[in-house]
């Protein structure tokens, strides 16, 4: 190696960052470099690369939080070193989690809210796994006690989020998912009963179906299952997937009976990071009563100086999200949650009116009786020469992410487009979107995309 003077090897501290020693050359992408690099420069490279992600605030596809209060940022920072699993080392974080569990049990009207069990998870997906496992274990114990076979469990759902497909596959359960039909996009009591038998571990209605945002009729399903039990003796529990609705209905629609007020509802999951308004990475599962969670699913972990009961798929997990969930509960109270969500419902209704007035769209859901959001299809009578996927592409050129997708079986032919209105999607932002929609329609009419397709054929067309 050539001998350098000290000045040669010392980086020039006054270099502009983009003219510095590292940045003019390409950074390795798939191998860890051998040597260290300047933190400022590496930070800038990654910061710049992240620019290519969509702007999360303009992502109208996600249910998850993309805006949080400054205090939430501070708490997240404060908790970055805390591990949720180390309940002995961080007893106060564990205490905040326990308080949240009881607050939620109370919010969801558990008859014994001070005595229920539940826990935080990484999201509704993990919570669904835990809820599903409890149903499977309880069903199996009952069957074994009766001396009956336990090899063919099934689960009855409406059109569910993919986490329930995972649950069924991972735990070897037959998923009896009620397909959508023309004019019926949700589960009904009749369709549920057709699929229930002695091997049904439970029924899962969704409060806020992912595809269309609508609530499934939990009370009707519960009544039908009560009736089934009276006729046949089959006692089939309900788990409500309240990923979104669990944090909406109690504040904005308190008369809707969907929760532990129905004795048949044995467990509920919800996503703290959706309408719970916590930052990404927290969900909740609560059982109605302690005995609804089978004892042998709970591990007593003797670890790092403490003996702690845990029920979770993960071990280590960040603690900040739970602290922030607790912050939201205290900071907002029920009134605050209601105001924030009601503002979202109002924006959704406004968008539905405006989008309907644009002409080619037929609103399927306008934000009433479900999640604050809306979805629409192309009118079958409209003779446009483009489809919803083309329209979504046009909006993307202005940064808006308004997904178009086809529905699950049996409605795969129907393409729809959906907007989720969440904390931070203001009336003004909505009006800017409408202006861009008008411009997009104008452009599509001048530069037709799918000229060979009629609108009807085009609705089922994928890019
Ligand atoms: C989002 C969602 C899930 C998955 O929740 P995560 O918190 O993203 O893991 C499950 N079910 C429904 C109905 C959802 O909307």
UniProtKB/TrEMBL annotation:
Cross-referenced InterPro entries: Glutamate_decarboxylase, PyrdxlP-dep_de-COase, PyrdxlP-dep_Trfase, PyrdxlP-dep_Trfase_major
Keyword Phosphoprotein listed: no
The protein's required cofactors: pyridoxal 5'-phosphate
GO molecular function: glutamate decarboxylase activity
Stored Pfam families: Pyridoxal_deC (PF00282)
Documented EC number(s): 4.1.1.15
EC top class named in words: lyase
Protein name per UniProt: Glutamate decarboxylase
Organism of this sequence: Sneathiella marina
């Amino acid at each position: 190696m050539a001998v350098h003077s000290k000045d040669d090897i010392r980086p020039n501290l006054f270099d502009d960052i983009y003219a510095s020693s590292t940045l003019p050359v390409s950074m390795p992408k798939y191998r860890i470099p051998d040597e260290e690099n300047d933190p400022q420069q590496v930070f800038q490279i990654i910061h710049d690369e992240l620019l290519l992600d969509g702007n999360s605030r303009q992502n109208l596809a996600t249910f998850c939080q993309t805006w949080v209060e400054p205090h939430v940022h501070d708490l997240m920072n404060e908790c970055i070193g805390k591990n949720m699993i180390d309940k002995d080392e961080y007893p106060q974080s564990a205490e905040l989690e326990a308080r949240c569990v009881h607050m939620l049990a109370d919010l969801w009207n558990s008859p014994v809210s001070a005595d229920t069990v539940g826990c935080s998870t990484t999201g509704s997906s993990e919570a669904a796994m835990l809820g599903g496992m409890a149903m499977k274990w309880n069903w199996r114990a009952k069957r074994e006690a009766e001396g009956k076979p336990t090899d063919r469990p099934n689960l009855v759902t409406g059109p569910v989020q993919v986490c329930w497909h995972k649950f069924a596959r991972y735990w070897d359960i037959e998923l009896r998912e009620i397909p959508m039909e023309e004019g019926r996009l949700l589960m009904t009591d009749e369709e549920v009963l057709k699929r229930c038998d002695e091997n049904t571990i439970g029924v899962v209605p969704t409060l806020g179906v992912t595809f269309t945002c609508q609530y499934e009729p939990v009370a009707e399903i519960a009544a039908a299952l009560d009736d089934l039990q009276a006729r046949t003796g089959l006692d089939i529990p309900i788990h409500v997937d309240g990923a979104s609705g669990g944090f909406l209905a109690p504040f904005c629609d308190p008369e809707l009976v969907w929760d532990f007020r129905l004795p048949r509802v044995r467990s509920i999951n919800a996503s703290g990071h959706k309408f719970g308004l916590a930052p990404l990475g927290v969900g909740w599962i609560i059982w109605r009563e302690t005995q609804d969670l089978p004892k042998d699913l709970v591990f007593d972990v003797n670890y790092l100086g403490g003996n702690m009961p845990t029920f979770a798929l993960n071990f280590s997990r960040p603690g900040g999200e739970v602290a922030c969930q607790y912050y939201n509960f205290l900071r907002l109270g029920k009134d605050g949650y209601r105001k924030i969500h009601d503002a979202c419902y109002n924006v959704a209704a406004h968008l539905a009116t405006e989008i309907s007035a644009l002409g080619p769209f037929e609103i399927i859901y306008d934000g009433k009786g479900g999640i604050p959001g809306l979805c629409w299809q192309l009118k079958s009578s409209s003779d446009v020469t483009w489809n919803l996927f083309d329209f979504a592409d046009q909006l993307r050129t202005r940064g808006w992410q308004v997904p178009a997708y086809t529905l699950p079986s049996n409605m795969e032919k129907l393409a729809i487009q959906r907007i989720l209105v969440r904390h931070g999607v203001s009336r003004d932002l909505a009006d800017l979107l409408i202006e861009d929609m008008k411009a997009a329609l104008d452009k599509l009419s001048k530069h037709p995309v799918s000229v060979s397709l009629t609108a009807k054929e085009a609705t089922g067309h994928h890019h």
